Amino acid sequence: MGFEGEFASYEPLRRVLDSKKIQDLQGRMRVQSTESFNGAIKTSLVHKSELPDSGNIRPDLVLAIDGSHLEGHPEKGFPGAEYGYITIAAVLIDLKLISQLEKEDIIDPKLFRKTETPATQESCFPGCNITLDNDKDAKASLRKALFEDFSSTRSLNNGETILETYEHLLKIKVDRFPDARKPDSPIEGVEREMEYGFGEYVCPHSGEPLYSTDALRLHELMNPSGANGELFGQIMATLEKLWLVNILRSCEQKDLLSTLRRIAFIMDGPLAVFSTSSWLTKVIEAELRRINEKQKHINGQDMMIIGIEKSGIFFNHFRDIDTSKEGIPDVFPNQSALLLTDEYIKKNIIFSESTKPYGQDTYFGRKFFYKAASGQRIVPVVAWFNEDQKNIRTANPEQFNRLADVMSLLDMVVSNRYPNSLSPLISAHAEAAIPLNIGTRLFEDIAREIKERSENG
Fold it and tell me: Which of 62, 301, 318, 392 has the fewest CB atoms within 10 Å around its CB?
């Protein structure tokens, strides 16, 4: 690391370029040529016009969910003390009203504001060098704060808490995967596996408190002597997925499953859970299948749950193959999709010779590339609800849940303000980044609007 005001000379760069080790390594590198993509692309490319009409009721409401986190430092306190502020936002977009307003020459701003119903939920968690009550260290306080936050928040009044949703998922893990390795005890000095439990309970080896939320192992990400952006980012991402399941379970408990035929759920980021809490993936998948089957008996069609990857290696690959070797963009025809297989991903995007399917342990949906009618590039991830949809060794249109409906929805909500993004996610991010509705129950007002609109046809 250089010193302030110090500038590098060209001599180190010359040595690197002339190095025999560097030249030998470059000679051994296997780099995929973009020309080799053409055959795979042609066999998997699907145009929207080629897909039969699904016969499904198209959603006229979009519920977008996004989160944001910010690290802060107390004005007075231990040096380096840090806390994390996390916001989860949900915005309901009325597509029918938007379509009506678009016919007007001049749109009334008051009426346009009625197309969106936002709600936010805020949380604060201790980080480095912050302790609560009489806790012995910051990690113990983080564990307690996670449990207390999960216990006190819910998406619907009188509905189940985030903790109850989480513990339902934990019970699925305990019942269905009894042989899975348990995490190590989070209590310092206890060199044993943690015994699963529900609520707050006592460690039999130390007498100190354990919490059901310890099984997420998020506390393991805490940096005791520095910034904790990764920790708070993972807490936020985990909460986003738990909120999705909580909202769906609340719809079930409030007899609102019939309204799901009208709603498309759009999440910022992939339908996946990474890092220490990745075990949630399998149990979320199981719970989504159960809820989907139940609502399908009522509505006659699958739910529409979509994640959107706005950046990263998949998006960069899509941009690259949509550009000719002469640098000319727009190789893909508009309203066409490239359906990705495990083989294509491992050969062209993330090189791997593993026999395990890509994303098996972290994803509960599958990706494809879509070039919208406007020319915007979108990388959606659609939830899967059966084993055929989950089998990414093949890529047939019917394996991508409601593919034609998803394409139509993306064409409708793609953003003209920001490249390769969707308007509902932009609205949700604005609410999460600048919480205008502090203290409101996430989804409570939204649920009321959904019910009222359903009753009014």
Answer: 301
